Amino acid sequence: MMKESGINSGELVQVQRISEKISQISVLYQSVLVQNSKMSEQIQSLKSQLNEKNKEINELKSKYNTIQFSKNIELTSKDVQETRRMVNRMLRDIDNCIALINR
């Protein structure tokens, strides 16, 4: 009787195994799709965090440059004060020399 339908019991077992494998592959595929979606969300979140950190780095670099510039101006200001003192000292020495010459 099996011969009439064209499928013997061995072939039927193989078809069932193939059907089970297809079901397993389908379940695994769905699982991979879910994982892929979660990973895509995680990638977007990490990209966003990276952009925020890059902005923060740029802001800190800008602040650092401003502080360095301000320190340079401060040093220049101190140098100017020291130079003024030296010039005033030299002028006093010149005045003393002129006073000595005029005696």
What does this structure look like?
The chain has 103 residues and is an all-alpha fold. It has one domain. 95% of the residues lie in helices and 0% in strands. The chain has 2 helices and no strands. The longest helix is centred in the middle third of the chain and has 94 residues, at 9-102. It starts with a helix and ends with a helix. The model has no long low-confidence stretch (mean pLDDT 89).
Attribute tags:
mainly alpha; 103 residues; 0% strand; rod-shaped; 2 helices
Summarize this, please?
The protein has 103 residues and is mainly α.
Helix content: over 70%
Instruction: Determine the structural class based on helices, strands and strand pairing.
Output: mainly alpha
Total count of helical runs of at least 4 residues: 2
Shape: rod-shaped
Domain count: the total is 1
Tell me the β content. under 5%
